[in-house]
Specification:
three-stranded mixed sheet; single chain; Immunoglobulin-like; alpha/beta; 170 residues; 2 helices; 9 strands
Length: 170
């Protein structure tokens, strides 16, 4: 039989209409189409939950260590510099300063360590990555302005963002 004769033979026949049959496990096509919105909603809820957890973890890492002494003046050191960049104290006053490193140990310059040094006052405090420590400072009896710095990383003592001012008033 040639191709032309086969085509002519079937030309007069009608193709039967498609019948809906039960799919795997007895599910009908209409039931499968109604479960699609449920699957999409479940996927969206899971994606939102995973995203929320991820955002929470990132935010908690960016906040750095929490204050351990609420009576201490908080000084945060990071690649961006010191926050606050200046402190004012009265002459002879003893002040507690909580120095915190906001950088991780993965920091390529200094490994997350930071320093608070004032040469004129003999102060040289250091804190490790993502940690804090409380130090006590007794201001000199005479007023003046003193520069503190971090010489461990971030361009060292010469970097203006890694410096701060301690002002001693009468």
């Amino acid at each position: 039989m040639t191709r032309r004769s086969r085509t002519a033979r079937f030309a007069g026949q009608q193709v039967p209409a498609h019948r809906e049959t039960a799919g795997p496990a007895g599910h009908s096509p209409s039931r499968a189409s109604s479960s699609r919105p449920l699957r999409l909603a479940a996927f969206a809820l899971i994606a939102l939950a995973v995203g929320g957890v991820a955002i929470g973890l990132v935010v908690s890492r960016l906040q750095g260590p929490a204050a351990t002494d609420i009576t201490a003046v908080q000084v945060h050191a990071s690649m961006g510099g010191f926050d606050p960049p200046a402190l004012t104290v009265k002459a002879g006053q003893t002040v507690k300063v909580e120095l915190s490193s906001m950088d991780t140990s993965m920091h390529s310059d200094g490994g997350g360590w930071h320093q608070f040094a004032i040469d004129e006052l003999g102060i040289d405090w250091k804190v490790g990555p993502l940690s804090s420590e409380v130090f006590e400072l007794t201001a000199p009896a005479t007023p003046g302005t003193f520069t503190w710095y971090c010489d461990i990383c971030c361009g060292g003592k010469e970097n203006p963002s890694m410096q701060g001012k301690l002002t001693v008033t009468a």
